[in-house]
Amino acid sequence: MTDDIKKGLAGVIADVTAISKVNPETNSLLYRGYPVQELAATQPFEAVAHLLWNGELPDADQLADLQKRERELRPLDERTVALLELIPVEAHPMDVVRTAVSQLGTFDPTLHRPGGWTDPVLDQGRALYLFAQLPTIIAAVQRRRRGLEPIAPRDDLDYSENFLWMTFGELPSAAAVDVFRISMVLYAEHSFNASTFTARVIASTTSDLYSAVVGAIGALKGPLHGGANEAVMHIFDEIGSADRVVPWLDEALAAKRKIMGFGHRVYKRGDSRVPTMKAALDRLIAEYGRTDLAELYDTLEHEFVTRKGIYPNLDYPSGPAYSLLGFETEIFTPLFIAARVTGWTAHVMEQAASNALIRPLSAYDGVDERHVPGYVPDT
Ligand code: ACO
């Protein structure tokens, strides 16, 4: 066996990207050069999508144009509505959304013939289409799980307001809408994480953008990646209250359980996005008067960091924030899809613009060559 193997590709620099820069030394994350905290403080999510896709923040006309097109693309095709009705209501929302995105790819006439599946202009349109459709799909899935009819999108609301309107049929406070917008900005992009790398592998075969997003959703579903925001809430439910943290953690660590929402492959001294999301969560906790949740959150963080020296990642504050906003736990990771589709599609386009098939090598560690009994070679 060779010493060159990097299990999990840990530490491997697989390619160059101009989309984002993760710097664990300075604990910073830049989208196209801008610190994510500055974007979260100032930009509508539509502007961040434009930035990721085009490299620059939009001017007022560009933003207005993008918002107009995004609003036009929100309503679901009747075939998507029919598909959502066909899927078992108990199915995990990640599987439902993955299936719906796969179907959206079949509506695209430019994909009906082989060849030409990557095209820079068409891919921009496809990315915007998915960006606009995903909130409508996810809101419909959330409502169906609660036995409620879907709510049509409103073209007088921006992305974040409309998402919450379609899900709940009412708008929370402006401050709560802003927490949701911030979460979308923070989740949008994070270099070569597992789902983005999956999307790039698929794009590298010159397959199409929808296929890349479907694959990325599959990768995001796992609790070691995006599924952790859902898993955090299950842990909170399991623990129940702050006074139960210590015995719960004793038992969990003795059983060698992973504590979801903590740890990161790249950041070892804290996730650059956590302070911004934690501040947003604190605003929701204050608004909804949930000091019990704050105590549970802080106690688990303090105990785990003290014992293991492993810090929270973005999923730790975002899970409880989504719960306070009223989302069901199983919808948290689909919300991550809605945000990360911007980063995934930017990476698909970047991969296509400078493509090399992604095809690593493997070292073989199986049985030596042998022969099928009874096989007689032709002479
Ligand atoms: N709980 C308990 N122990 C942990 C955790 C955790 N959350 N994270 C790391 N460790 C321990 C491991 O058990 C391992 O211990 P060991 O050396 O004694 O075996 C050591 O720290 C190194 O952990 P690895 O999993 O090998 O490190 P890796 O870089 O692969 O881990 C990962 C990154 C997968 C995210 C890990 O920290 C984890 O599983 N966290 C929980 C899941 C999670 O929150 N994922 C979200 C990622 S961020 C995102 O997607 C937005």
Automatic annotation (TrEMBL):
Catalytic activity: oxaloacetate + acetyl-CoA + H2O = citrate + CoA + H(+)
Similarity field: Belongs to the citrate synthase family.
InterPro entries per UniProt: 2-MeCitrate/Citrate_synth_II, Citrate_synth-like_lrg_a-sub, Citrate_synth-like_sm_a-sub, Citrate_synthase, Citrate_synthase_AS, Citrate_synthase_bac-typ, Citrate_synthase_sf
Keywords in alphabetical order: Transferase, Tricarboxylic acid cycle
Protein name: Citrate synthase
Superkingdom as given in the UniProt entry: Bacteria
Pathway: Carbohydrate metabolism; tricarboxylic acid cycle
Gene3D superfamilies named among the record's database cross-references: Citrate Synthase, domain 1 (1.10.580.10), Cytochrome P450-Terp, domain 2 (1.10.230.10)
PROSITE patterns named in the record: CITRATE_SYNTHASE
